[in-house]
Amino acid sequence: MIQTIKPLYLTLLICSAVIPLAGAQEAVKFKPAGNPIIKDKYTADPAAFVYGDSVYLYTGHDQAPKGKEFYEMHEWLCYSSADMLNWKEHKVPLRAKDFSWAKGDSWASQVIERDGKFYWYVSITHNTINGKAIGVAVSDSPTGPFKDALGKALITNDMTTDTKISWDDIDPSVIIDQDGQAYLFWGNTRCYYAKLKKNMVELDGPIQTVSLPEFTEAPWIHYRKGWYYLSYATQFPEKIAYAMSKNINGPWVYKGILNEIAGNSNTNHQAIIDFKGKSYFIYHNGGLNTDGGSYRRSVCIDHLYYNKDGSIKRVIMTTEGIAKSR
Ligand code: FUB
What we know:
Oligomer: single chain
Low-confidence stretches: 1-24
Number of strands: 23
Strand content: 35-45%
Bound molecules: beta-L-arabinofuranose
């Protein structure tokens, strides 16, 4: 009897230390073995930022049951890490239903900090204005709870008439420039951008477009060592391409493919960060379980390497992840 109980007890003990638990509440710790990094649920559309000593990772939650071949996403998730290897899962900080003017769909998002407040820009479906919209939630903590900052959408489909599709107002990416001016980038088939006021919840000028070759969606704006980088999903199934500029208003110079087709997911949605002296490429694929795929995606992390001239080496997607450096 003792012999049968002991190994089971040990197995449970080891599993609870390394595997995140379903229905997690506050700060469930786990250490993933390779990619995908989150193995207990399907996660997509990663966004990350560094605050204090930690990285905060925000994802959508793919909840489509096996056999459903479209997105089913009701909430966003939050994870944090002090070393990119050991992660904590936090209590669900934001749900589509927290936006009273929206009717669902927790699509891609990004969080940024300004003056001690955390602003979460989200893609979501508007209830009364046809199409997708961008909303913004705010919190005093990177792990939430977040609440709708405006009580209405920041961007609606009728504000962008460049294209007739109703889903062009998705995938917000936000940056605060060296001079303190904040910018919001977003789009599908058109890459839009606009200045944000210091309060981070109002536009501070006209909506403009960036011309990028074969832009599909998922713009991610970042700045590093004198260069602005605008990476984005290109074509479909998606690869990730990028452009560089010395000025956030362009001109942007197209630099080619950054990451290849995932193969098991139509989308690839990237986030790029530097943390404790290393650069990281965070993205999703469909590589978890046999049910994984375009609507049951999983967040992965691999190293990103810059060349001396500031251009970026092509990403190598791995199953080992970042535990072993190349
Ligand atoms: O997750 C829904 C949509 O799929 C996102 O908004 C896009 O970036 C793509 O990943």
